[in-house]
Amino acid sequence: MKKTLLPIFFAFVSFTFFAPSVFAADSGCNDGNYSLPNTTYLSPSSGNNNQDQINTAIASAPPGGSVFLKKGTYIVNGSIHLKSNVILEGDSDAIIKLKDHAGLKRSDSIMVGTSTQNVEIKCFQIDGNYNFSSGNYSAAADSCYDGLVWNSPDSAYAACESKTADRYHGRGYYTMVDINNSINVSLHNMTMQDGCNDGMRVTHTAGVRFYNNYVNAMGHEGLYANVSHGIEAYGNKIAVRTSDGVRGDDCYDYSIHDNEMYSYNGRDSSFGVQIDSKAGKPVYNIQIFRNVFHDIWWGGVWLSKGNIPMHDGRYAIEIHHNLFVGNGYSRNSGTGINGAIRSDISAASIIFNNTFDGNYGYGIYDPTGRARIVSNIITGTKSSKNGTGGGVGVAGGGEMSYNIFYGNGKDYTKGGTANYTANPLYFKSGADYHLMSKAGRWDPALSQWVADSQNSPAIDAGTMDSVYGEYKNEPENNGDMLNAGVYGNTSQASLTGNVKQSPMPPAPALDFFSTVIFTGGGSDASAGGTGIDIPGGGGGTGDIYIPGTGETGSDAFSGMGTAGEKYDGPIYYDPNEAVTPADSGETVTPAVSLPEAVMAPLFPQLGNAPATATASCSVAAESGGLVPCGRNTDDPGTDWNECDACDLCAVILMGQLTIEFLMKMAGIASVLSIVFAGFLYIFAVGKASLVSKAKDMVKNILVGFIIVFTAWVVVNSILTILGYIDPIGGAWYTIC
User: Fold this and answer.
1) Three-class secondary structure of residue 98 per DSSP
2) What pLDDT sits at residue 622?
3) Which of 212, 196, 47, 215 is nearest to 129 (CA)?
4) Cis ω for the linkage preceding 85 (within 30 of 0)
5) pLDDT computed for residue 733 by the predictor
6) Strand pairing class (371-374; 87-90)
7) Which residues, in sequence order, are bridge partners of residue 349?
8) What is the pTM of this model?
9) How far apart are CA 175 and CA 110, in angstroms?
10) Which H or E run includes 621?
11) Comparing C-alpha atoms, which of 349, 245, 254, 353 is closest to residue 299?
């Protein structure tokens, strides 16, 4: 996409989504604080085996204690072993860095936690040193790897590895933090960059919080969860290099929200989020919401393998209130279908209240027809760059209703209820996706509600479903209907009406959506396979974990060392850190719209926009004039709508406006005449005729004004007797 994505993210996250002011400012970090109780402080030692001193300190730490890394670089050539009930933390400029050519086994990791519980890792940096920044750079290996993509065969990677000691990126080498058979693990406020494999991998683990991290250029996933549950990933900024930002294989109770994901280098990345069922384990209660997916080489969300059925009458996967902008621009035909959301499997999913804009390939691709698609806005979908076609807003899908399409090469391939084509009137595509509204639109840049000249047809256009059509979070006046798109059923939803609302609603507040529900442990995700439930989870009774509060229901999320800690928000998008197609000199051109004759056989006729679409009457901050009807613009400064048709009531109102206009003109003329007479009197010294003329002028002006005022009183009395009270709402208007 373009560098305008900084305001996209800022507009999306302000107040309701990511703003640090909404959450408590405490990040849980102790930068520069060297007087904490039960804490062992370390400084970098010379050599390449700093893992030894870190491991000694962790092994010696008491339960509930902490090992603190002071600023500096800790070179390691072996694994750091985590311990239950111990915090590993550090200064923000403390760096654990893998030695050049560490020579570890392929399965080795920088940090390892096995059969642990209540572990917290926070506030320092991990450098995977994939690029060997301190030396021993191999141009031959770099050239070899540069020609590969994520799905190249093992033999191709092995050939590159032979040119260097260890650079088998994305193939299992050097995961930064590897957790297995554990419970209650937290990793937050970390910088993790330049890795060969995963940033954090959790296997057979229950109770994981991964938040407020900056994850840059991993060789595989930023967070990879396998056969685990009770996982929450939020507030992260992830620059995806090779595979996905966040992934879940055979997981349940998994919440992925309030993250920003984009491609690190403009190529060689898979999706922002990948969910699959590889081993037939339960996959359900997957919540993906309030994320911004932009400029990702392949796409935003991928449902990739297996069969994911409904669970207890609910959709197993819910994708809602996300922004998908400019994704799927890969030119590699080997990646296949590109776009914002791709489902290659039979997955019971619901996709609602998202906004899609400017994606390549497909907005939503669901050939199996299991997805329910409602209340989304899908615009500007372009043909793929890799020859796989597309340019389709929605391909396939199950039930599809109450969606708005505009400017796509093709809109959708399956009929539905109340889908229509109309310009959704974003305030500024590519920067701010709030919907234009005459009554009021929240402007995050100004931190206030403002009125626009047009109403978006997406206002009050969402589904009327009792569950997924809720509008309770929308401020009044909300028309008792859900808005379509990413801000529907949020406190930032644009207002309903044709006149600027007064007073405006208060500033938006935090909108909570359902997130992780801890449904208890089990042999597939517990410490050592013993079925231990998450502490504070009510013994597996399904308590709801409130994001960022450190609490499960009424119980504290124990052993974290951060009880009650609030979410602090991610670092916002820096366009200089991601090489997008535009940055690399690649020409980005919109897809050519197909002729209607080509579209007609494949795509159903689109309906008309609902009655809320009132773009034909715009708002202009100008005088309404003496004619109060039949105009193309409505003056927001009057209590009536100048766009209404002319009738007898309008004639009466025009008469009143004319009288008021003449009264104003008479008053102005009188004042000017008296001023002139005053000047004449001043300069008439010694000239009796001029003095007399000035006096007569003032007298005549006053008499004339009295006549005009008397005429106004008489006319007004007659109108009052006839029933006139006020230009709107009076008895005469009611009778008319």
Assistant:
1) strand
2) 52
3) 196
4) no
5) 35
6) unpaired
7) 317, 371
8) 0.71
9) 6
10) none
11) 245
If phi > 0 it is left, if psi is from -120 to 50 it is alpha, else beta; for residue 263 that is beta
- Whole-angstrom Cα distance, residue 127 to residue 109? 12
Collapsed DSSP state (helix, strand, coil) of residue 657: helix
Contact of 464 with 38, CB cutoff 8 Å: no
276-300 in b/e burial notation, b at 16+ Cβ within 10 A? bbeeebbbbbbbbbbbbbbbbbbbb
Name the pairing type of β-strands 420-421 and 404-406: parallel
Please report, for the chain, the start and end positions of each structural domain, with discontinuous segments joined by +.
38-99, 647-735
**Length of the chain, in residues:** 736
Coil, helix or strand for 659? Answer: helix
How many other C-beta atoms can be found within 10 angstroms of the C-beta atom of residue 445? 14
User: What pLDDT is attached to residue 574?
Assistant: 31
Distance CA 555, CA 565 (A): 14
Q: Tabulate helix, strand, coil % of the chain (nearest 5).
A: 15, 25, 55
Q: Please check whether residue 118 is in contact with residue 88, taking contact to mean a CB–CB distance below 8 angstroms.
A: no
Gap between the Cα atoms of 688 and 695, Å rounded: 11
pLDDT at 46: 94
Q: Cα(217)–Cα(128) distance, rounded to whole angstroms?
A: 10
In a 3-state reduction of DSSP, which class is residue 130? coil
Q: Which residues pair with 303 in a beta bridge?
A: 275, 343
| Token pair listed for 414 | 């399956």
Alpha helices in 290-447 (DSSP H): none
Distance between CA 235 and CA 13 in Å, rounded?
A: 10
* Strand extents, DSSP E, 522-586: 545-546, 551-552, 555-556
Write a three-state SS string for 482-529. Answer: CCCCCCCCCCCCCCCCCCCCCCCCCCCCCCCCCCCECCCCCCCCCHHH
Residue 255, token pair as written in the block: 């919440």
- The number of beta carbons lying within 10 Å of the beta carbon of residue 622 is 11
DSSP state, residue 417: B
Which residue carries 């990791």 as its tokens?
Answer: 109
Q: What tens digit of pLDDT does each residue of 65-123 get?
A: 999 999 999 999 999 999 999 999 999 999 999 988 787 776 789 999 999 999 999 99
**8 A C-beta contact, residue 468 and residue 352:** yes
| Chain-centroid distance, C-alpha 68 | 34
pLDDT digits (tens, 9 = 90+) for 178-233: 999 999 999 999 999 988 899 999 999 999 999 999 999 888 999 999 999 999 99
Determine how β-strand 551-552 pairs with β-strand 545-546.
Answer: antiparallel
Distance CA 347, CA 55 (A): 44
Residue ranges for the chain with pLDDT beneath 50: 1-4, 6, 9-10, 13-26, 134, 520-616, 727-736
Q: Give the three-class secondary structure for 674.
A: helix
Instruction: List, in sequence order, the alpha helices (H) in 24-164.
Output: 51-60, 139-146, 154-161
Supply the pLDDT for residue 129. 85
What is residue 545's predicted lDDT score, i.e. its pLDDT?
30
